[in-house]
Amino acid sequence: MDEEARNFLPKTTFTRREFVITTLAAGFALAVRPVSAQTITTDTTGLEAGEVKIPVADGTIPAYRAMPATGGPFPVVLVVQEIFGVHEHIKDICRRFAKLGHLAVAPELYARQGDVSQLSDVNEIVTKVVAKVPDEQVMVDLDAAVTWAEKSGQGDVNKLGITGFCWGGRIVWLYAAHSPRLKAGVAWYGRLVGQATDLTPKYPLDLVSALKAPVLGLYGGADSSIPPESVEQMRTALQAAGNPSQIVLYPDTPHGFNADYRPSYRQEQAQDGWKRLQEWFKKYGAA
């Protein structure tokens, strides 16, 4: 971790060594069931896909990895979970990337704090698990996933991208300020402003000047959890800083519009966002 990145992380070092999650949950998280009939399922034909273990300083964390079955090394993309953890939707996103020729890896970033897959109440997920996850821990675990991909011999980390959704959307912005190895990021409806805490000391708006890689932000104009005002505030700050990052705001579109397994899914916007993601990665060397 470089010194500039340390400036926006907690001053305490993460030392907890107990892992609540040692293997990924199967299927969809309890809180999102029943899943929608329009849920997209990507097959594993021509892929190598499944659970792997990522070594970290205090043990190992489970992750889902998908990549083409032959060839390589492949461009690496980190896929950052929603608040529901690495459940079936995030695994499917990894397979979609693998079909495009990437090595996609989604580490379970709540592994030390708790298993959200069996919690049915969103507020309970947030208060019991998500609110206890330090940004510092997440940055270090994502770095560990990059190291794992590099050491596997199957990932080309010189073409490193990151994407994330909701909780993971905010993390994309933070990781773009943290990692000098990152080429590009795509943040789907991640919070841009918020109340600083010891575990989450900075939000994307605070980090505009620290961004090391360009981020494409994909946001919904009817997202009640992310006011359009905060999106415009971020856009203005990026422009003022001369940063190449961009934000797309889809009118009349709710939070979670890429979540095809939930009622919030909007096919047109999701497909447009996925197309823009691919173009963004290619433009900035992450594909």
Q: In words, what does this structure look like?
A:
By secondary structure, this protein is an alpha/beta fold. The protein has one domain: Rossmann fold, CATH 3.40.50. Helix content is 29%, strand content 21%. It has helices spanning 3-6, 88-99, 122-128, 135-151, 167-178, 228-240, 267-283, and strands at 47-56, 59-68, 74-80, 103-107, 155-165, 184-188, 215-220, 246-250. It has an eight-stranded mixed sheet with strand order 1-2-4-3-5-6-7-8, with helices on both faces. Helix 4 packs across helix 5 (167-178). The longest helix is centred in the middle third of the chain and has 17 residues, at 135-151. The protein is globular, with a radius of gyration of 17 Å. The model is unreliable at 1-14 (pLDDT under 50).
